[in-house]
Amino acid sequence: MKRIAILISGGGSNMVALVQAMQADFPARPVLVASNDPHAAGLAKARALGVPVAVVDHRSFVGDRPAFETALLAAITPATPDILCLAGFMRILSAEFLAAFGKPVLNIHPSLLPRYPGLDTHQRALEAGDTEAGCSVHRVTADLDAGPLLGQARVRVLPGDTAESLAARVLVAEHRLYPEVLREVCQNASI
Ligand code: GRF
Question: pLDDT-derived band of residue 98, with 50, 70 and 90 as boundaries?
Fold first, then answer.
């Protein structure tokens, strides 16, 4: 049974999807939800789901990323996670953090990587006239949104789509994709 820690920065809808998937015959259980933002709405959702939470406010470490990452690692380690899932987590993690954690780190990104790493992915897809968009789950490496792909889901761009309407449809696909990929990762020890 793999132990999963989840990092969030905001609403945590992907965290909720992961936690709700990790029931019954799923080969993993959530052991911690942590956020860099004490006001993240996802923290209350995690508590309501019975998952322990932790906060490491990045504003307490302005200009000192190593100190923030050391504090984050100290908050995560006692939960002894096997895998770290970033879910709407908006801080970049350094190679040093990834090496110190030493276990797989996954992330979900709202585009069909390698297209549109970074922010404003839906607006960029619309401006490019793309007919499809989607989301990607990938291994996290020091290169932003560039680690090995583990799964993708495609979503049609519809006439009249705005960044908001497209984001809402992609988010539904994210909530299906992330648990599917996590299940595969837990069952495939080679990651
Ligand atoms: C999602 O689109 C996710 O892909 C991106 O942040 C958005 C919000 O995620 N990383 P959540 O609702 O906080 O899980």
Answer: very high
CB 132 within 8 A of CB 156: yes
Q: Which of 86, 171, 182 to mutate to test the pocket of ligand 1 (most atoms within 8 A of CB)?
A: 171
Q: Residues with Cβ < 8 Å from 166, sequence gap 6 or more?
A: 122, 125, 126, 133, 155, 157, 158
- Residue 171 Cβ < 6 Å to ligand 1: yes
CA 152, CA 148: separation in Å to the nearest integer?
12
Confidence of residue 181 (pLDDT cuts 50, 70, 90): very high
* Ligand 1 atom nearest 15 alpha carbon: 14
Q: What is the pLDDT of residues 32-48, one digit of tens each?
A: 999 999 999 999 999 99
CB atoms under 10 Å from CB of 114, counted, come to 11
CA angle, 52 as apex, 3 and 24 as ends, to 5°? 50
